[in-house]
Amino acid sequence: MRDAVGVGILGFGTIGTGVAKVLLRNREVIARRLGFPLQLVRIADLDTRRDRGVDLEDIRFDDDAAGLISDPRVDIVIELIGGYDAARRMILDAIAKGKHVVTANKALLALHGEEIFGAAAKKGVDVAFEASVGGGIPILRSLREGLAANHIDSLYGILNGTTNYVLTEMEQTGEPFEAVLKRAQDLGYAEADPTFDVDGIDAAHKLTLLVAMAFGAQLTYKDIPTEGIRNVAPVDIEFAEEFGYRIKLLGIAKSHTDPAGKPRIEARVHPTMVPADHLLSKVDGAMNAVAVRGDAVGTTLHYGAGAGELPTASAVVGDLMEIAREIQRGQAGRVAPLSYMPEELHAVDLVPLGELRARTYLRFTALDRPGVLSHITGALGQAGIGIESVLQKGRGLASESVPVLVLTHPAAEADVRAAIDEIDRLPDVTGPTRLIRIEEELSQ
User: Fold this and answer.
1) Average pLDDT, the chain
2) CATH 1.10.357.10 fits 139-305, yes or no
3) Residue 339: per-residue pLDDT
4) Judging by DSSP bridges, how do beta strands 245-257 and 152-158 pair with one another?
5) Domain layout of the chain by residue ranges
6) Which of 5, 365, 387, 443 gets the highest tally of CB atoms within 10 A of its CB?
7) Angle at the Cα of 151 (from 147 to 152), degrees rounded to 5?
């Protein structure tokens, strides 16, 4: 058997612990598949006292991250500390010292990926990041290799397990968002500060990487229009079910061309009404799924655990094994990290939300008085927006507000937004209108 490839872990939290467990527990099967061992030689973390339940005999464990990066026994550095500044510095330092890098840090790559991948290309080392999207689902490897012959037409992803858990629980219990989120935090499904999850930022980070790999489009997550699930109410979920839909937080990306034939990309994250008979609508709890449609393969669905200690560790160790093979061959860069050759990655215009045409669900909050409904439907009609269904939930006194639910025919979002602005100024409308888009292409 050939010489071992040495591995060092920066960050010994949940995922780092999982990686150590997989490397140590499965060392024999890993060596049999590689033809040589993967040897965990060093771990660095600020907390060196807590017992992680892992036998670290013969493995150096301290808080010396710089020492780990410089250690000649470490061929591959695994960055699992998260965040931006410190992680970026450590990754670039490792690259500068000729070390290959594996990371699960989608936030960092969604913001600084161009710099990191550029530095790795110049130094002739690899940066692998399968665990950054979809946890244990090999969606990035599928886009990079398995689907590489396809022109990707579209992808739809349930990319955040926390929000999917919350929406599933709201549907099953009828409880409001705040109550379900609190329970998710108590159970450990949601962070103490859930902002990145429930406001869609985490999904936007992941969609940034998927868009690059699917379309060769260069952008950051800040370019992607993003809405979270804070404003989804039980009445929205109930209405969706009545009309054959379920609400999911989706990351959506599609390939377009403008009238002159110039390529454009549609990329967005928001709550979406998905047809109840589509496979994505059946993804419940904390699970993730990504549907990819290619011109040759058709539609494929990739499903699995999107987070967690061992599913994410599975993806990290898979990356380690891929890079270790290249080290033994004396090679690097067998496949471009973002699927496209670096010189083929270009800034691409995004389709403005206002140009999108779709059926929409609108929830108005209005006083229960005669004539209010006609004012709302009249404003929609004046904007050229056809109405498919109208439903008023509950009956109140003239001084009480009730939800008025409207399902529209396909219309340009700019026109819908203009009508909403006018309706929200009506004296009998007592709260901001909520809009949820309906993704009809998933019915096809």
Assistant:
1) 93
2) no
3) 92
4) antiparallel
5) 5-136+309-340, 139-305, 354-443
6) 5
7) 75
**Triad 367, 373, 378: Cα angle to 5°:** 135
- Residue 442: the pLDDT is 76
Check: CB of residue 407 under 8 Å from CB of residue 388.
Answer: yes
Report CA dihedral (216, 220, 221, 223) to the nearest 10 degrees.
-90
Was domain 354-443 assigned CATH 3.90.1300.10? no
Cα–Cα distance between 395 and 83 in angstroms, integer?
49
Q: Which of 403, 436, 439, 391 is nearest to 242 (CA)?
A: 391
Contact 166, 187 (CB under 8 A): no
Which pair of structure tokens corresponds to residue 208?
């940034």
- Residues with active-site annotation: 206
Determine phi and psi for 141, rounding to 5 degrees.
-65, -35
CA distance 98 to 34: 22
Shortest CA distance to 82 belongs to which of 101, 67, 103, 65?
Answer: 103
Q: What is the mean predicted confidence (pLDDT) over 201-228?
A: 95
Cα(125)–Cα(393) distance, rounded to whole angstroms? 60
Alpha carbon 41 to its chain centroid, in Å, reads 32
Phi and psi at residue 63, in whole multiples of 5°?
A: -105, 20
- Whether pTM > 0.85 for this model: the answer is yes
Picking from 84, 130, 92, the residue whose alpha carbon sits closest to that of residue 108 is 84
Looking at the DSSP assignment, which residues form a beta bridge with residue 42? Answer: 8, 60
Question: Which strands make up the sheet holding 100-103, listed edge to edge?
Answer: 60-62, 38-44, 5-10, 76-79, 100-103, 127-128
Please write the tens of the pLDDT for every residue from 395-427.
Answer: 655 568 899 999 999 999 999 999 999 999 999
**5-136+309-340 belongs to which CATH class?**
alpha beta
Max CA separation in the chain (angstroms): 83
pLDDT the model gives residue 443: 63
